[in-house]
Amino acid sequence: MENKLSAHTFHIPVMGIGFTVDTPVKVAKYGISSVISLVDDKLIERMRKVYSEKLEIPFQAISSKIDDYRAKRITSYLNLIDEVVKEKFEELKKSVLEKSTEVEKYFSMLPSLSELKEKFEHFVENNTVKEDVLAWLDKNLPLGSIDVNIMTKLDREYFRDGEKLPVEYNDAHAALRGFAESSLNSSIVFSAGMNPRLYSYIENFRDFYPDEIGNLKKRIILKVSDYRSAIIQGKFLAKKGLWVSEFRIESGLNCGGHAFATNGFLLGPVLEEFKVNRDSLQKELYEIYTKALESKGYVSQAMPQTKISVQGGVGTAEEHEFLLNYYQVDSVGWGTPFLLVPEVVNVDNDTLKLLSDATEKDLYTSRVSPLGVLFNNVRGNTMDMKKMRLIAEGNPGSVCPNGNAAVHKDAAGKPICSASRVYQRGAIEELKAKNLDFESYNKEYEAITMPACICNSLGTSAMLVNGIEPLKAQGTEVAVCPGPAMAYFSEPSTLQRMVSHIYGRENIIKHPNRPNMFVKELRLYVDYLKQQFKEASYPFDKKQTAYFEEYQANIKDGIEYYKGLVAEFKGKLEGIKSKFLADVAALEKELKTIKVHKAELVPA
User: What does the pLDDT read at residue 597?
Assistant: First the structure.
């Protein structure tokens, strides 16, 4: 595989279940990498039908009654997307023989100081033969990667005739197999923490191991929120001869989708730790990796590349450049802003307006996820409205059309989702038997009915946009999970305008008081601590006290780090130094008002 120059310094992360399910078709030909969710094989199968009809190619449905249907659906869809993207890329390159508008669009979106653009312009100056230009494009133009995402916690078990099927039929295992057996030369992003059983299953697939010249056809990206997690997961995989090609660092709270709050570890200090230890981390993993490879009979090659990327809350070109230059990351993820770019993601008109109008007060973390993890939400979404209507009618819960978030077990040991009607009815009956007082009953009732059917509703927008008729059990309600950064983007955009914003050629943010991304995350962590205090039983036991003290200590360390970081602000960032320090000082003062009362402890 030829080593081509990279096109862009940003990528589009996975968003929801359906928002980016076909994004590579729309952006990969321009050298932009994006990520497809593999959660919902029903949606994936229906999207395969949509594209088959568009391309006028035969479509043979993969029935849920056949063996291994989930993996087969995923493989078939990814193979189709791979084929479509490659065809579009060839068409783009060949357009240079005609009007070349697509080639011009490709290069117009590259960073201003792009080495790729510079080399192309130099070549064209000295070569006017269009066939020679096409040959240069064939050799040098990079295609955006068609990456996929698996949430490691979503690994539901399957049963047939009352008997549990082998573990390889579990949701995440089947999704991994679907990707591994596809034609893609790309990466799989593992998010939501380590799943040792799933990671061990990767060993079964040849494409994750180097070929005779050291190339990996299938690569591994780990989404992490701290350095310790990267080391632990990286070593676990290295011992199996599996290389982590990228650590994708994500803010714990200043992001979209599920919010996995760290114990007060802020993004800046985490990035600094990766920056300082990057070389030693790679060397340590490589030593383990080579020994494992040799034990499996593979020839050890030169150390493969390990990229470092970051995502979560970035919103300006200045922040983008700072992350690239100071922390030396290879790519920056821009997710939430792209929810306002209909030509890139599947966002229906009503949701587009809801997101465009959303303010800071409209964006919040909720407990609607059946996974028991905080979930980024926006007020007024139709999924929540339906949920509240059903509760008011005395019929809470979903009919559970997909069951992808069935992480609990029923009395028979089978998977069940806490957002399902069956689960909530059973839990409410148990609650009634407790004979609690009115206030206590209502509090527990609210907790039981809080989870919503997000594994269905996060894919609805894709169906609406692509003219797919939802099944009766699915409905048309839409869930959407933007990060807090959505408050500062207030109108729909085109792909070219958004890319121009990312690279500083245009500014599409109209909000007058948008905070710096690090300040915003600090604000979110202080608010999270206050909420944890509010929800915790008081007086605190020793375990709670230790947690709160460590959390506060980590926040304080982060604040001291940021006080020193402003010295590195250059260019346009210099203009925000005073405000940055003032905002940090205000949050430091607020943090000091939150005290853990050691004198009133109860036994752990």
Answer: 59
C-alpha 411/C-alpha 405 separation (Å) is 17
Residue 3 pLDDT: 61
| Residue 36, beta-bridge partner list | 148
The predicted-structure confidence for 60-87, as pLDDT tens digits, reads as follows 999 999 999 999 999 999 999 999 999 9
Return the pLDDT at 111: 97
Whether the link from the prior residue into 269 is cis, omega within 30° of 0, is no
For Cα atoms 322, 324, 328, give the angle at the middle one, nearest 5 degrees: 115
The pLDDT value recorded for residue 599 is: 40
Residue (of 427, 388, 419) closest to 402 by Cα position:
419
Show the tokens assigned to 379. Answer: 């007020």
pLDDT score recorded for residue 536: 86
Q: Where are the alpha helices (DSSP H) in 539-576?
A: 542-565
Helix 542-565 vs helix 267-295: angle between axes, to the nearest 10 degrees? 100
Contacts of residues 289-296 at CB distance under 8 Å and 24 or more positions apart, as own/partner, are 289/238, 289/241, 289/242, 289/243, 292/238, 292/239, 292/240, 292/241, 292/242, 293/209, 293/210, 293/241, 295/241, 296/209, 296/241
> Under a CB-based contact definition with an 8 Å cutoff, are residues 225 and 270 in contact?
yes
Measured CA to CA in angstroms, residue 294 lies from 234, 281, 288, 338, 591 at distances of 18, 20, 10, 43, 52
Single out the residue of 167, 110, 170, 209 nearest to residue 502, CA to CA: 110
Q: In which residue ranges of the chain is pLDDT below 50?
A: 1-2, 598-604
pLDDT given for residue 307 in this prediction: 98
Residue 11 phi, psi (nearest 5): -135, 165
Strands 415-416 and 408-409 come out as antiparallel
Is the four-CA dihedral 51, 53, 59, 61 of positive or negative sign?
positive
Contact 585, 556 (CB under 8 A): no
DSSP category for residue 602:
B
To the nearest 10 degrees (0 to 180), the angle between helices 101-108 and 69-94 is 100
